[in-house]
Amino acid sequence: MRNLTHVIALCIIYFFIFGFPDRPRAMSHIKLLNIVGARPQIIKASAISRAIRKYYPEKITEIIVHTGQHYDKEMSAVFFDELEIHKPDYNLGVGSARHGRQTSMMITGIEEVLLKEKPDCVLLYGDTNSSLAGALAASKLHFPVIHIEAGLRSFNKSMPEELNRIISDHSSTLLFAPTNAAFKNLMSEGFRPENSPPYTIDNPKIYFTGDIMYDNALFFAELAEKKKISLLKDLSVERENFVLATIHRDINTDDIVRLEAIMRTFLSLSQENSKTFVMPLHPRTTISLKNNISQLYQELLNSKLFRIIPPVSYLEMILLEKTCRMVITDSGGVQKESHFFRKPCIVLRKETEWIELVNNGTTVLVDADPERIRTEFERLLKNGSALEFPGFYGNGKTAEFILEEIMMLFEKV
Ligand code: UD1
Ligand code: UDP
Predict the structure, then answer these.
(1) Which residues are annotated as catalytic?
(2) Which of 3, 79, 158, 191 sits 20 to 30 Å CA-CA off 311?
(3) Which runs of E-coded beta strand occur in 313-366?
(4) Ligand 1 center from residue 335 Cα (angstroms)
(5) CA dihedral defined by 266, 354, 153, 37, rounded to 10 degrees?
(6) How much is the average pLDDT of 277-289?
(7) Atom 23 (ligand 2): residue with closest C-alpha?
(8) 341 CA to middle of ligand 1, Å?
(9) Which ligand is nearest to the CA of 40?
(10) Does an H or E element contain 280, and which?
(11) Is the shortest distance between the CB of 42 and ligand 2 below 6 Å?
(12) Residue 275 pLDDT > 60, yes or no?
Protein backbone atom coordinates (compact mmCIF):
# COMPACT_ATOMS: atom_id res chain seq x y z
CA MET A 1 0.00 0.00 0.00
CA ARG A 2 2.86 2.38 0.92
CA ASN A 3 4.60 1.46 -2.39
CA LEU A 4 1.45 2.32 -4.30
CA THR A 5 1.23 5.70 -2.56
CA HIS A 6 4.88 6.32 -3.50
CA VAL A 7 4.24 5.44 -7.15
CA ILE A 8 1.20 7.75 -7.31
CA ALA A 9 3.14 10.59 -5.66
CA LEU A 10 6.05 10.13 -8.11
CA CYS A 11 3.61 10.12 -11.06
CA ILE A 12 1.99 13.35 -9.87
CA ILE A 13 5.41 15.01 -9.49
CA TYR A 14 6.48 13.72 -12.94
CA PHE A 15 3.34 14.94 -14.71
CA PHE A 16 3.45 18.22 -12.81
CA ILE A 17 6.96 18.84 -14.12
CA PHE A 18 6.71 17.37 -17.64
CA GLY A 19 3.00 17.80 -18.37
CA PHE A 20 0.29 15.23 -19.05
CA PRO A 21 0.97 13.31 -22.29
CA ASP A 22 -2.46 13.66 -23.88
CA ARG A 23 -3.31 17.21 -22.84
CA PRO A 24 -4.27 19.52 -25.74
CA ARG A 25 -1.37 21.82 -24.89
CA ALA A 26 0.87 20.01 -27.35
CA MET A 27 4.37 21.09 -28.31
CA SER A 28 2.99 22.44 -31.57
CA HIS A 29 0.72 24.98 -29.94
CA ILE A 30 0.82 28.53 -31.41
CA LYS A 31 -0.20 31.77 -29.76
CA LEU A 32 -1.30 34.16 -32.50
CA LEU A 33 -2.12 37.75 -31.69
CA ASN A 34 -4.54 39.43 -34.05
CA ILE A 35 -4.71 43.22 -34.29
CA VAL A 36 -7.92 44.86 -35.51
CA GLY A 37 -9.35 48.34 -35.16
CA ALA A 38 -11.31 49.50 -38.19
CA ARG A 39 -14.48 47.96 -39.66
CA PRO A 40 -12.89 46.11 -42.59
CA GLN A 41 -10.25 44.57 -40.32
CA ILE A 42 -12.88 43.03 -38.09
CA ILE A 43 -14.53 41.54 -41.18
CA LYS A 44 -11.16 40.24 -42.42
CA ALA A 45 -10.34 38.76 -39.01
CA SER A 46 -13.56 36.76 -39.17
CA ALA A 47 -12.17 34.74 -42.11
CA ILE A 48 -9.08 33.82 -40.09
CA SER A 49 -11.06 33.12 -36.89
CA ARG A 50 -13.44 30.83 -38.76
CA ALA A 51 -10.54 28.88 -40.28
CA ILE A 52 -8.84 28.57 -36.88
CA ARG A 53 -12.04 27.19 -35.34
CA LYS A 54 -12.43 24.73 -38.21
CA TYR A 55 -8.88 23.46 -38.70
CA TYR A 56 -6.77 24.28 -35.64
CA PRO A 57 -9.04 24.68 -32.62
CA GLU A 58 -6.53 22.89 -30.38
CA LYS A 59 -3.36 24.13 -32.01
CA ILE A 60 -3.83 27.86 -32.34
CA THR A 61 -4.82 30.19 -29.54
CA GLU A 62 -6.09 33.38 -31.05
CA ILE A 63 -5.82 36.57 -29.02
CA ILE A 64 -7.74 39.53 -30.42
CA VAL A 65 -6.56 43.05 -29.70
CA HIS A 66 -9.02 45.76 -30.76
CA THR A 67 -7.37 49.16 -30.82
CA GLY A 68 -10.76 50.90 -30.57
CA GLN A 69 -10.13 52.91 -33.74
CA HIS A 70 -13.76 52.23 -34.68
CA TYR A 71 -16.12 52.13 -31.72
CA ASP A 72 -19.73 52.93 -32.73
CA LYS A 73 -21.89 49.83 -32.47
CA GLU A 74 -22.51 49.75 -36.23
CA MET A 75 -18.78 50.22 -36.98
CA SER A 76 -17.53 47.50 -34.62
CA ALA A 77 -19.71 45.42 -32.25
CA VAL A 78 -22.18 44.48 -34.98
CA PHE A 79 -19.44 42.57 -36.82
CA PHE A 80 -18.31 40.61 -33.76
CA ASP A 81 -21.91 39.52 -33.17
CA GLU A 82 -22.91 38.79 -36.73
CA LEU A 83 -19.70 37.13 -37.91
CA GLU A 84 -19.23 35.11 -34.72
CA ILE A 85 -15.81 36.33 -33.76
CA HIS A 86 -14.95 36.02 -30.09
CA LYS A 87 -15.07 39.30 -28.19
CA PRO A 88 -11.71 41.10 -28.17
CA ASP A 89 -9.41 39.91 -25.40
CA TYR A 90 -8.17 43.49 -25.15
CA ASN A 91 -9.88 46.70 -26.25
CA LEU A 92 -7.47 49.61 -26.06
CA GLY A 93 -10.29 52.12 -26.46
CA VAL A 94 -8.14 54.56 -28.40
CA GLY A 95 -10.99 56.15 -30.38
CA SER A 96 -10.70 59.01 -32.86
CA ALA A 97 -7.83 61.51 -32.91
CA ARG A 98 -5.31 63.05 -35.29
CA HIS A 99 -3.03 60.49 -36.93
CA GLY A 100 0.00 60.96 -34.68
CA ARG A 101 -1.88 60.94 -31.42
CA GLN A 102 -4.14 58.05 -32.42
CA THR A 103 -1.26 55.91 -33.68
CA SER A 104 0.99 56.62 -30.70
CA MET A 105 -1.76 55.66 -28.22
CA MET A 106 -2.26 52.44 -30.14
CA ILE A 107 1.48 51.66 -30.11
CA THR A 108 1.64 52.19 -26.34
CA GLY A 109 -1.35 49.93 -25.72
CA ILE A 110 -0.25 47.20 -28.12
CA GLU A 111 3.27 47.18 -26.64
CA GLU A 112 1.90 46.48 -23.18
CA VAL A 113 -0.25 43.62 -24.44
CA LEU A 114 2.67 42.12 -26.36
CA LEU A 115 4.93 42.19 -23.32
CA LYS A 116 2.26 40.46 -21.27
CA GLU A 117 1.11 37.87 -23.82
CA LYS A 118 4.42 37.11 -25.58
CA PRO A 119 2.75 35.69 -28.70
CA ASP A 120 4.54 33.55 -31.29
CA CYS A 121 3.47 35.92 -34.04
CA VAL A 122 1.38 39.03 -34.65
CA LEU A 123 -1.19 39.19 -37.44
CA LEU A 124 -2.08 42.48 -39.15
CA TYR A 125 -4.67 43.23 -41.80
CA GLY A 126 -4.63 45.94 -44.43
CA ASP A 127 -3.48 49.50 -44.14
CA THR A 128 -5.12 51.42 -41.31
CA ASN A 129 -3.46 53.25 -38.44
CA SER A 130 -4.17 50.14 -36.36
CA SER A 131 -2.09 48.07 -38.79
CA LEU A 132 0.74 50.61 -38.65
CA ALA A 133 0.72 50.69 -34.85
CA GLY A 134 0.74 46.89 -34.68
CA ALA A 135 3.62 46.69 -37.15
CA LEU A 136 5.78 49.17 -35.25
CA ALA A 137 5.03 47.87 -31.75
CA ALA A 138 5.59 44.22 -32.69
CA SER A 139 8.64 44.59 -34.90
CA LYS A 140 10.46 46.80 -32.37
CA LEU A 141 9.95 44.14 -29.73
CA HIS A 142 11.11 41.47 -32.23
CA PHE A 143 7.82 39.64 -32.48
CA PRO A 144 7.42 38.25 -36.04
CA VAL A 145 4.80 40.20 -37.96
CA ILE A 146 2.49 38.60 -40.50
CA HIS A 147 0.83 41.00 -42.94
CA ILE A 148 -2.35 39.97 -44.67
CA GLU A 149 -3.13 42.15 -47.72
CA ALA A 150 0.54 42.89 -48.28
CA GLY A 151 1.94 44.60 -51.36
CA LEU A 152 -1.01 46.79 -52.30
CA ARG A 153 0.08 50.20 -53.54
CA SER A 154 -1.71 53.28 -54.81
CA PHE A 155 1.63 55.03 -55.54
CA ASN A 156 0.18 58.08 -53.84
CA LYS A 157 1.96 58.77 -50.57
CA SER A 158 -0.34 61.65 -49.67
CA MET A 159 -2.87 58.93 -48.83
CA PRO A 160 -2.41 57.94 -45.17
CA GLU A 161 -2.97 54.28 -46.02
CA GLU A 162 -0.04 54.21 -48.48
CA LEU A 163 2.50 54.98 -45.74
CA ASN A 164 0.78 52.49 -43.44
CA ARG A 165 1.07 49.76 -46.09
CA ILE A 166 4.71 50.38 -46.90
CA ILE A 167 5.78 50.46 -43.24
CA SER A 168 3.68 47.41 -42.36
CA ASP A 169 5.16 45.42 -45.24
CA HIS A 170 8.72 46.40 -44.40
CA SER A 171 8.23 45.41 -40.76
CA SER A 172 6.91 41.95 -41.63
CA THR A 173 8.35 38.46 -41.70
CA LEU A 174 5.53 36.78 -43.65
CA LEU A 175 3.72 38.79 -46.31
CA PHE A 176 0.55 37.50 -47.94
CA ALA A 177 -0.20 39.39 -51.16
CA PRO A 178 -3.81 39.03 -52.32
CA THR A 179 -3.15 39.71 -56.02
CA ASN A 180 -0.50 39.20 -58.62
CA ALA A 181 -0.04 42.99 -58.87
CA ALA A 182 0.54 43.21 -55.10
CA PHE A 183 3.09 40.38 -55.27
CA LYS A 184 4.95 42.17 -58.07
CA ASN A 185 4.94 45.42 -56.08
CA LEU A 186 6.71 43.61 -53.25
CA MET A 187 9.33 42.25 -55.64
CA SER A 188 9.96 45.69 -57.06
CA GLU A 189 10.59 46.92 -53.50
CA GLY A 190 13.28 44.28 -53.03
CA PHE A 191 11.34 41.40 -51.47
CA ARG A 192 12.64 38.10 -52.87
CA PRO A 193 10.38 35.08 -53.44
CA GLU A 194 13.40 32.76 -53.38
CA ASN A 195 14.30 33.51 -49.73
CA SER A 196 14.59 30.33 -47.68
CA PRO A 197 13.92 29.65 -43.99
CA PRO A 198 14.47 30.65 -41.28
CA TYR A 199 12.39 33.71 -42.16
CA THR A 200 12.96 36.94 -40.28
CA ILE A 201 12.23 40.62 -40.73
CA ASP A 202 15.50 40.77 -42.70
CA ASN A 203 14.79 37.60 -44.65
CA PRO A 204 11.03 37.74 -45.15
CA LYS A 205 8.84 35.31 -47.04
CA ILE A 206 6.35 36.59 -49.62
CA TYR A 207 3.32 34.72 -50.96
CA PHE A 208 0.69 35.32 -53.63
CA THR A 209 -2.41 33.92 -51.98
CA GLY A 210 -5.77 35.29 -53.05
CA ASP A 211 -8.02 37.40 -50.86
CA ILE A 212 -9.60 36.44 -47.55
CA MET A 213 -12.44 38.87 -48.35
CA TYR A 214 -13.39 36.55 -51.20
CA ASP A 215 -13.52 33.67 -48.65
CA ASN A 216 -15.97 35.79 -46.65
CA ALA A 217 -18.11 36.79 -49.62
CA LEU A 218 -18.53 33.15 -50.65
CA PHE A 219 -19.21 32.01 -47.10
CA PHE A 220 -21.79 34.68 -46.24
CA ALA A 221 -23.54 35.45 -49.54
CA GLU A 222 -26.33 32.91 -49.19
CA LEU A 223 -26.78 33.57 -45.51
CA ALA A 224 -27.21 37.27 -46.30
CA GLU A 225 -30.13 36.49 -48.62
CA LYS A 226 -31.68 34.18 -46.04
CA LYS A 227 -31.31 36.45 -43.03
CA LYS A 228 -31.48 39.99 -44.38
CA ILE A 229 -33.77 39.88 -47.40
CA SER A 230 -36.39 42.03 -45.63
CA LEU A 231 -33.95 44.94 -45.84
CA LEU A 232 -34.85 45.45 -49.52
CA LYS A 233 -38.49 45.80 -48.56
CA ASP A 234 -37.68 48.10 -45.66
CA LEU A 235 -35.74 50.35 -48.03
CA SER A 236 -38.44 50.06 -50.74
CA VAL A 237 -35.93 49.10 -53.41
CA GLU A 238 -36.20 46.57 -56.21
CA ARG A 239 -33.50 44.12 -57.19
CA GLU A 240 -31.20 45.42 -59.94
CA ASN A 241 -32.90 48.78 -59.89
CA PHE A 242 -30.92 50.76 -57.35
CA VAL A 243 -27.42 52.15 -57.02
CA LEU A 244 -25.36 51.35 -53.93
CA ALA A 245 -22.98 54.17 -53.00
CA THR A 246 -20.48 54.61 -50.17
CA ILE A 247 -18.04 57.43 -49.43
CA HIS A 248 -15.60 57.60 -46.56
CA ARG A 249 -12.06 58.49 -47.75
CA ASP A 250 -10.58 61.66 -46.30
CA ILE A 251 -10.00 63.09 -49.80
CA ASN A 252 -13.76 63.01 -50.36
CA THR A 253 -15.16 63.73 -46.90
CA ASP A 254 -12.77 66.46 -45.79
CA ASP A 255 -12.60 68.30 -49.13
CA ILE A 256 -15.99 69.98 -49.19
CA VAL A 257 -15.74 70.98 -52.84
CA ARG A 258 -15.32 67.33 -53.83
CA LEU A 259 -18.02 66.10 -51.45
CA GLU A 260 -20.50 68.64 -52.74
CA ALA A 261 -19.65 67.89 -56.39
CA ILE A 262 -20.17 64.16 -55.83
CA MET A 263 -23.44 64.52 -53.93
CA ARG A 264 -24.91 67.07 -56.37
CA THR A 265 -24.05 64.77 -59.27
CA PHE A 266 -25.72 61.84 -57.51
CA LEU A 267 -28.81 63.93 -56.91
CA SER A 268 -29.21 64.87 -60.56
CA LEU A 269 -28.36 61.37 -61.85
CA SER A 270 -30.96 59.81 -59.60
CA GLN A 271 -33.65 62.19 -60.88
CA GLU A 272 -32.71 62.01 -64.57
CA ASN A 273 -32.55 58.21 -64.57
CA SER A 274 -35.23 57.47 -61.94
CA LYS A 275 -32.75 55.42 -59.96
CA THR A 276 -32.79 55.08 -56.22
CA PHE A 277 -29.46 55.62 -54.44
CA VAL A 278 -28.88 53.61 -51.26
CA MET A 279 -26.11 55.21 -49.22
CA PRO A 280 -25.03 53.64 -45.91
CA LEU A 281 -22.93 56.50 -44.62
CA HIS A 282 -19.71 56.18 -42.64
CA PRO A 283 -19.99 58.50 -39.59
CA ARG A 284 -17.16 60.61 -41.00
CA THR A 285 -19.27 61.44 -44.07
CA THR A 286 -22.41 62.20 -42.08
CA ILE A 287 -20.46 64.54 -39.82
CA SER A 288 -18.97 66.39 -42.79
CA LEU A 289 -22.30 66.69 -44.62
CA LYS A 290 -24.05 67.97 -41.49
CA ASN A 291 -21.32 70.42 -40.55
CA ASN A 292 -20.34 71.74 -43.96
CA ILE A 293 -23.16 71.36 -46.46
CA SER A 294 -26.21 70.98 -44.30
CA GLN A 295 -28.62 72.30 -46.91
CA LEU A 296 -27.56 69.72 -49.48
CA TYR A 297 -27.67 67.05 -46.78
CA GLN A 298 -31.27 68.04 -46.06
CA GLU A 299 -32.12 67.86 -49.77
CA LEU A 300 -30.73 64.32 -49.89
CA LEU A 301 -32.69 63.32 -46.80
CA ASN A 302 -35.87 64.77 -48.35
CA SER A 303 -35.39 63.20 -51.76
CA LYS A 304 -37.73 60.29 -52.56
CA LEU A 305 -34.89 58.71 -54.52
CA PHE A 306 -32.34 58.66 -51.70
CA ARG A 307 -31.96 56.27 -48.82
CA ILE A 308 -29.37 57.89 -46.58
CA ILE A 309 -28.88 55.34 -43.81
CA PRO A 310 -26.40 54.60 -41.01
CA PRO A 311 -23.67 52.02 -41.70
CA VAL A 312 -25.17 48.59 -42.25
CA SER A 313 -23.96 45.21 -41.03
CA TYR A 314 -21.74 43.07 -43.25
CA LEU A 315 -24.55 40.68 -44.17
CA GLU A 316 -26.76 43.62 -45.07
CA MET A 317 -23.98 45.16 -47.10
CA ILE A 318 -23.33 42.06 -49.16
CA LEU A 319 -27.06 41.66 -49.74
CA LEU A 320 -27.11 45.22 -51.12
CA GLU A 321 -24.03 44.53 -53.24
CA LYS A 322 -25.61 41.34 -54.58
CA THR A 323 -28.90 42.93 -55.51
CA CYS A 324 -27.97 46.42 -56.73
CA ARG A 325 -27.53 47.51 -60.35
CA MET A 326 -24.24 49.31 -59.86
CA VAL A 327 -21.80 50.36 -57.15
CA ILE A 328 -20.24 53.81 -56.69
CA THR A 329 -17.62 54.01 -53.96
CA ASP A 330 -14.24 55.15 -52.74
CA SER A 331 -13.85 52.04 -50.56
CA GLY A 332 -11.29 49.35 -51.30
CA GLY A 333 -13.36 46.54 -49.85
CA VAL A 334 -16.57 47.59 -51.57
CA GLN A 335 -14.78 47.83 -54.94
CA LYS A 336 -13.74 44.21 -54.69
CA GLU A 337 -17.08 43.01 -53.39
CA SER A 338 -18.81 44.63 -56.37
CA HIS A 339 -16.58 42.43 -58.53
CA PHE A 340 -17.33 39.30 -56.44
CA PHE A 341 -21.04 39.95 -57.03
CA ARG A 342 -20.55 40.84 -60.70
CA LYS A 343 -21.56 44.49 -60.54
CA PRO A 344 -19.92 47.37 -62.40
CA CYS A 345 -18.19 49.83 -60.13
CA ILE A 346 -17.42 53.54 -60.37
CA VAL A 347 -14.57 54.60 -58.09
CA LEU A 348 -14.44 58.16 -56.77
CA ARG A 349 -10.65 58.27 -56.75
CA LYS A 350 -7.77 58.98 -59.12
CA GLU A 351 -6.10 55.64 -58.51
CA THR A 352 -6.76 52.23 -56.99
CA GLU A 353 -4.73 49.45 -55.41
CA TRP A 354 -7.00 46.88 -57.11
CA ILE A 355 -5.65 47.66 -60.55
CA GLU A 356 -6.77 44.36 -62.12
CA LEU A 357 -10.37 45.57 -61.84
CA VAL A 358 -9.64 48.71 -63.83
CA ASN A 359 -7.65 46.76 -66.43
CA ASN A 360 -10.64 44.44 -66.74
CA GLY A 361 -12.93 47.38 -67.54
CA THR A 362 -15.47 46.53 -64.82
CA THR A 363 -14.21 49.25 -62.48
CA VAL A 364 -13.68 52.81 -63.68
CA LEU A 365 -11.82 55.61 -61.96
CA VAL A 366 -13.59 58.97 -62.18
CA ASP A 367 -11.99 61.00 -59.35
CA ALA A 368 -14.68 63.45 -58.17
CA ASP A 369 -15.32 64.85 -61.64
CA PRO A 370 -19.07 65.35 -62.27
CA GLU A 371 -18.71 64.87 -66.04
CA ARG A 372 -16.81 61.60 -65.70
CA ILE A 373 -19.20 60.31 -63.04
CA ARG A 374 -22.11 61.11 -65.35
CA THR A 375 -20.58 59.57 -68.50
CA GLU A 376 -19.58 56.32 -66.76
CA PHE A 377 -22.86 56.09 -64.88
CA GLU A 378 -24.90 56.32 -68.10
CA ARG A 379 -22.60 53.94 -69.96
CA LEU A 380 -22.65 51.29 -67.24
CA LEU A 381 -26.38 51.60 -66.76
CA LYS A 382 -26.77 50.59 -70.42
CA ASN A 383 -24.11 47.90 -70.83
CA GLY A 384 -23.10 46.88 -67.30
CA SER A 385 -24.83 43.51 -67.57
CA ALA A 386 -22.66 42.53 -70.57
CA LEU A 387 -19.39 42.75 -68.60
CA GLU A 388 -17.21 39.76 -67.64
CA PHE A 389 -15.97 39.29 -64.06
CA PRO A 390 -13.01 36.86 -64.00
CA GLY A 391 -11.82 35.31 -60.73
CA PHE A 392 -8.83 37.38 -59.64
CA TYR A 393 -8.98 36.68 -55.91
CA GLY A 394 -8.26 33.01 -55.31
CA ASN A 395 -10.46 30.01 -54.59
CA GLY A 396 -12.23 31.07 -51.40
CA LYS A 397 -9.74 29.12 -49.25
CA THR A 398 -7.12 31.78 -48.72
CA ALA A 399 -7.47 31.87 -44.92
CA GLU A 400 -6.91 28.11 -44.83
CA PHE A 401 -3.74 28.45 -46.90
CA ILE A 402 -2.42 31.30 -44.73
CA LEU A 403 -2.93 29.27 -41.56
CA GLU A 404 -1.21 26.22 -43.03
CA GLU A 405 1.84 28.34 -43.74
CA ILE A 406 1.76 29.91 -40.27
CA MET A 407 1.51 26.46 -38.68
CA MET A 408 4.42 25.19 -40.72
CA LEU A 409 6.66 28.10 -39.80
CA PHE A 410 5.78 28.73 -36.18
CA GLU A 411 4.99 25.23 -34.97
CA LYS A 412 7.38 24.54 -32.10
CA VAL A 413 8.81 21.09 -32.57
C1 UD1 B 1 -10.13 54.25 -41.41
C2 UD1 B 1 -8.87 53.92 -42.18
C3 UD1 B 1 -9.18 53.68 -43.62
C4 UD1 B 1 -10.27 52.65 -43.78
C5 UD1 B 1 -11.47 53.00 -42.95
C6 UD1 B 1 -12.47 51.89 -42.96
C7 UD1 B 1 -6.85 55.02 -41.34
C8 UD1 B 1 -5.87 56.11 -41.56
N9 UD1 B 1 -7.92 55.04 -42.12
O10 UD1 B 1 -10.64 55.46 -41.95
O11 UD1 B 1 -8.02 53.22 -44.28
O12 UD1 B 1 -10.63 52.59 -45.14
O13 UD1 B 1 -11.07 53.21 -41.58
O14 UD1 B 1 -13.73 52.30 -42.60
O15 UD1 B 1 -6.64 54.20 -40.49
N16 UD1 B 1 -15.89 57.88 -36.45
C17 UD1 B 1 -17.03 57.74 -35.70
N18 UD1 B 1 -17.29 56.52 -35.14
C19 UD1 B 1 -16.47 55.46 -35.28
C20 UD1 B 1 -15.30 55.62 -36.03
C21 UD1 B 1 -15.03 56.84 -36.61
O22 UD1 B 1 -17.81 58.68 -35.54
O23 UD1 B 1 -16.77 54.37 -34.74
C24 UD1 B 1 -15.64 59.20 -37.09
C25 UD1 B 1 -14.84 60.14 -36.21
O26 UD1 B 1 -15.30 61.45 -36.44
C27 UD1 B 1 -13.43 60.01 -36.78
C28 UD1 B 1 -13.71 59.76 -38.26
O29 UD1 B 1 -14.89 58.97 -38.30
O30 UD1 B 1 -12.65 61.14 -36.57
C31 UD1 B 1 -12.60 59.02 -38.99
O32 UD1 B 1 -12.30 57.79 -38.32
P33 UD1 B 1 -10.84 57.12 -38.49
O34 UD1 B 1 -10.85 55.80 -37.84
O35 UD1 B 1 -9.80 58.09 -38.07
O36 UD1 B 1 -10.67 56.96 -40.05
P37 UD1 B 1 -11.65 56.34 -41.12
O38 UD1 B 1 -12.06 57.43 -42.04
O39 UD1 B 1 -12.69 55.52 -40.48
N1 UDP C 1 -19.25 47.56 -45.02
C2 UDP C 1 -20.28 47.23 -44.14
N3 UDP C 1 -21.24 48.17 -43.89
C4 UDP C 1 -21.25 49.39 -44.47
C5 UDP C 1 -20.20 49.72 -45.36
C6 UDP C 1 -19.20 48.78 -45.60
O7 UDP C 1 -20.32 46.14 -43.61
O8 UDP C 1 -22.16 50.17 -44.18
C9 UDP C 1 -18.21 46.56 -45.28
C10 UDP C 1 -18.02 46.24 -46.74
O11 UDP C 1 -18.91 45.23 -47.14
C12 UDP C 1 -16.57 45.80 -46.80
C13 UDP C 1 -15.93 46.65 -45.72
O14 UDP C 1 -16.97 47.10 -44.87
O15 UDP C 1 -16.44 44.45 -46.44
C16 UDP C 1 -15.25 47.82 -46.35
O17 UDP C 1 -14.92 48.75 -45.37
P18 UDP C 1 -14.69 50.29 -45.66
O19 UDP C 1 -15.38 50.68 -46.90
O20 UDP C 1 -15.05 50.99 -44.42
O21 UDP C 1 -13.11 50.40 -45.78
P22 UDP C 1 -12.02 50.01 -46.88
O23 UDP C 1 -12.29 48.67 -47.42
O24 UDP C 1 -12.03 51.09 -47.91
O25 UDP C 1 -10.75 50.10 -46.11
Answers:
(1) 248
(2) 158
(3) 326-329, 345-347, 363-365
(4) 18
(5) 70
(6) 98
(7) 333
(8) 26
(9) 2
(10) strand 276-280
(11) no
(12) yes
